[in-house]
């Protein structure tokens, strides 16, 4: 375990160096980047201004390995930084995350101007490795084979004042043939329930009103101690935390989705009526080849139970098109499952080889043009269903948590944006009174599009919250301090917006 004194080796406080972190991949990586920011700032670095684009003293790549071209993307970005580093004495480049865990020494061989390579299990070592590389004037490659310290013990620069990730486990015990994450993140390791609840209570004390429980297979929580109901108990315990208004979680696996979890969702008022549960395929044959431990009937049965207990729940999913051996009949089964499930939205992916996975070497790889055609058919169907499901929201009165950075056109349209309890994105007319991110407004939905709703009338109610106070305080502190301090305003990382039909993510849950 890295000590606080080790982490503070780094930078002369009289001449603070700036840092920039570039994050790729899933929510786990986004949350890890919050930890990396906290580590660097504890060590005396300051965050580079937004848009610095490689002008920082330290540039950190937090990588993802689940895409076939992930390494090409990384080395392309490293190549673009090489001349800048050559012309800027003292600049350092670090590479971490899943691709670093996988490729290790290869990164320095292909990009010898990289100073530090670290893995998914030892992110706490980054400041020490940077200092060691500077003193020794040679690249430092350090990859731990198992978790050195649970990430939540590390300092954190939270990317939102009102919403926060809370990691409840790391790693995964599944063996899906398309996914390399278990090999890079390791076997599942659960946090103590008391530690999780203590972190949530501390966050609420700081003004956070929404938390998202995060795990590679979040509802398998408790496998370490043999308690199959540990996750539902955790949800109910979250319901007892005063001041915590919204609880979400991502991503559950259908194999571990039990009736006690559905009951906890339905009976705990601050657990939101939202479920993102990857389906991956509707074909039993393909699911077997993927080594997924459920079949279409089981998956649709879970959805039926959730809707019976929580009628207004919005259910979203991940789907892979063109898995090796997928026939037209298999694909039709996926379309059938989509029609039956009536997803609010879906992440849809064209299968791409993940180097190091069993699926990458399977026979009957599907031609690109066939995958593309099937993908387009699936997207068209899901767009139609998403729009139909959103139209059902017209006329409903919804309580929104005002969001930051969710409405790209808000300035031009004189609107603000927020998230409904089911995580649908709603753009609403800006009230006369001041409204801040984290505050709550009540609106009536007047129009539906496939990926958002509109509330064009006046807000029915505006409630100022402690979360809004926290956002206002953070904004004031940012204006009063240099760019990059611990309380700077975020750009990325606010927990899980509702997926869009063609969005990107790892799709490996």
Q: Can you put this structure into words, describing what you see?
A:
By secondary structure, the chain is α/β, with parallel strands linked by helices. 34% of the residues lie in helices and 18% in strands. Strand 16 and strand 17 form a beta hairpin. Helix 9 packs parallel to helix 10. The radius of gyration is 23 Å and the shape is globular. The N terminus and C terminus are likely disordered.
Share of helix among residues? 25-40%
Write down the Rg: 23 Å
Determine the N-to-C terminus distance: 28 Å
Oligomer: single chain
**Total number of strands:** 21
Query: What topology, given as strand order, has the largest sheet?
Result: 19-20-17-16-15-18-21
Biggest sheet character: 7 strands, mixed
Beta strand %: 15-25%
What coarse outline follows from CA principal-axis ratios?
globular
Poorly predicted tracts of residues: 1-13, 483-507
Which structural class is indicated by helix and strand composition? alpha/beta
* Helical segment count: 16
Average pLDDT, to the nearest integer?
Answer: 87
Itemize the secondary structure elements and their pairings.
Blueprint: H1 4-7, E1 18-23, H2 27-42, E2 46-47, E3 58-63, H3 70-86, E4 92-97, H4 98-103, H5 105-110, E5 116-118, H6 126-136, E6 140-142, E7 163-167, E8 169-170, H7 181-185, E9 189-190, H8 193-205, E10 210-214, H9 230-238, E11 246-250, H10 259-267, E12 274-276, H11 284-289, H12 296-309, E13 314-321, H13 328-341, E14 345-350, H14 368-391, E15 397-402, H15 410-413, E16 415-419, E17 425-429, E18 440-444, E19 447-448, E20 453-455, E21 461-463, H16 466-480
Parallel strand pairs: 1-2, 1-3, 3-4, 4-5, 5-6, 7-10, 10-11, 12-13, 13-14, 17-20
Antiparallel strand pairs: 8-9, 15-16, 15-18, 16-17, 18-21, 19-20
């Amino acid at each position: 375990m890295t000590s606080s004194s080790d982490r503070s080796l780094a930078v002369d406080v009289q001449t603070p160096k700036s840092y920039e972190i570039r994050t790729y991949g899933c929510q786990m990586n986004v949350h890890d980047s919050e930890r990396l920011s906290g580590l660097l700032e504890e060590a005396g670095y300051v965050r580079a201004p937004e848009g610095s684009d490689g002008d920082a003293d330290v540039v950190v790549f937090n990588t993802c390995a689940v895409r076939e071209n992930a390494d090409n993307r990384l080395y392309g970005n490293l190549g673009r930084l090489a001349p800048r580093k050559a012309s800027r004495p003292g600049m350092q480049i670090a590479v971490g995350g899943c691709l670093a865990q996988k490729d290790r020494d290869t990164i320095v061989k292909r990009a010898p101007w990289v100073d530090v390579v670290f893995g998914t299990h030892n992110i706490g070592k980054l400041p020490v490795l940077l200092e060691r590389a500077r003193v020794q004037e040679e690249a430092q490659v350090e990859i731990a084979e198992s978790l050195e310290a649970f990430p939540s013990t590390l300092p954190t620069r939270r990317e939102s004042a009102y919403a926060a990730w809370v990691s409840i486990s790391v790693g995964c015990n599944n063996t899906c043939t398309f996914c390399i994450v278990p090999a890079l993140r390791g076997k599942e390791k659960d946090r103590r329930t008391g530690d999780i609840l203590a972190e949530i209570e501390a966050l609420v004390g700081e003004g956070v009103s929404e938390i998202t429980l995060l795990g590679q297979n979040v509802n398998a929580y408790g496998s370490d101690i043999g308690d199959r109901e540990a996750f539902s108990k955790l949800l109910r315990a979250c319901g007892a935390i005063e001041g915590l208004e919204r609880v979400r979680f991502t991503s559950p696996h259908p194999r571990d989705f039990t009736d006690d979890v559905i009951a906890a969702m339905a009976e705990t008022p601050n657990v939101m009526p939202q479920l993102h549960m990857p389906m991956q395929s509707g074909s039993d044959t393909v699911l077997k080849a993927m080594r997924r431990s459920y079949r279409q009937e089981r998956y649709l049965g879970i959805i039926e139970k959730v809707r019976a207990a929580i009628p207004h729940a919005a259910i979203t999913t991940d789907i892979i098109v063109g898995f090796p051996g997928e026939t037209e009949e298999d694909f039709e089964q996926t379309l059938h499952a989509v029609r039956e499930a009536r997803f609010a939205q879906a992440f849809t992916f064209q299968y791409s080889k993940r180097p190091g996975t069993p699926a990458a070497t399977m026979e009957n790889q599907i031609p690109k043009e066939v995958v593309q055609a099937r993908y387009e058919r699936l997207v068209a169907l899901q767009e139609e269903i998403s729009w139909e499901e959103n139209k059902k929201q017209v006329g409903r009165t919804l309580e929104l948590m005002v969001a930051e950075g969710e409405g790209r056109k808000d300035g031009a349209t004189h609107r603000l944006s927020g998230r409904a309890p089911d995580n649908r994105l709603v753009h609403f007319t800006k009230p006369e009174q001041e409204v801040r991110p984290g505050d709550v407004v009540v609106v009536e939905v007047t129009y539906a599009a496939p990926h958002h709703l509109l509330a064009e009338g006046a807000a029915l109610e505006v409630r100022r919250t402690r979360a809004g106070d926290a956002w206002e305080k953070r904004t004031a502190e940012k204006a009063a301090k240099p760019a990059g301090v611990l309380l700077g305003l975020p750009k990325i990382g606010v927990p899980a917006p509702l997926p869009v039909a063609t969005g990107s993510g790892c799709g490996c849950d």
